[in-house]
Amino acid sequence: MVPEVEEVVPHVEGADVEMRVRARGLSEPLRPSNISEGTLMILAIASVLYGGFSLVVLEEPESRVHPRLLKALMGLFKEAPPQVVVTTHSPCLLNHAKPEEIYVVEKVGLETKVKRLSATKEFETVKQFLEEGGTLGEAWYSGLIGGTP
Fold first, then answer.
1. Which of 22, 60, 96, 148 is the Cys-Cys partner for 74 at CB 3.0 to 4.6 Å?
2. What share of the chain has pLDDT > 90, as a percent?
3. DSSP 8-state code for residue 119
4. Among candidates 124, 134, 57, which has minimal Cα distance to 95?
């Protein structure tokens, strides 16, 4: 996803550890302050996905990531060893999911309710919307899928 990154290099100074990035064409590794926030986000996500955990929960992982990388990011979640739970308010990220993978979280009064999209009364309407050329992001944003747009 970040082809110019050749290696992530830990740098230790006393009790401080800093992760630096060796980029193609540069002689010295880059410090985090010289790396884009999107690249840092992708590297952090990759680190936790392949860090030996059985469950990874990510809140709005698309934040700071270039929109063209969202499909690859979603693919990374699906292929990673742990079970991955992602929360988002991004119609763009939602476009790279399947309706069967979506859970809707809603606040009803003082309760938070979680339901699988495929178990809702809206599911058939959403499937028809997709068959007619719409996207999941558009379905959510337009109110076809529960939750507040």
1. 96
2. 77
3. G
4. 134
Cα–Cα distance, 53 to 89 (Å, whole number): 25
* Residues 30 and 73 reside in one and the same domain: yes
The helix (H) or strand (E) run that includes residue 91 is: helix 91-94
Report the C-alpha gap between 48 and 43 in whole angstroms.
9
10-36 per-position pLDDT tens digit: 889 999 989 899 999 999 999 999 999
Distance CA 21, CA 73 (A): 20
Task: Write 66-74 long-range contacts (CB < 8 A, 24+).
Answer: 66/38, 67/92, 69/1, 69/38, 69/42, 70/95, 70/96, 71/96, 72/1, 73/1, 73/42, 73/45
What's the structural domain count of the chain?
Answer: 2
If asked whether residues 50 and 117 sit together in one domain, one would say no
Contact 11, 18 (CB under 8 A): yes
Q: Are residues 52 and 81 in the same domain?
A: yes
Domain-located, residue 118: yes
pLDDT tens-digit readout, 78-88? 999 999 999 99
Q: Are residues 84 and 116 in the same domain?
A: no
147 has pLDDT over 70: no
The model's pTM: 0.82
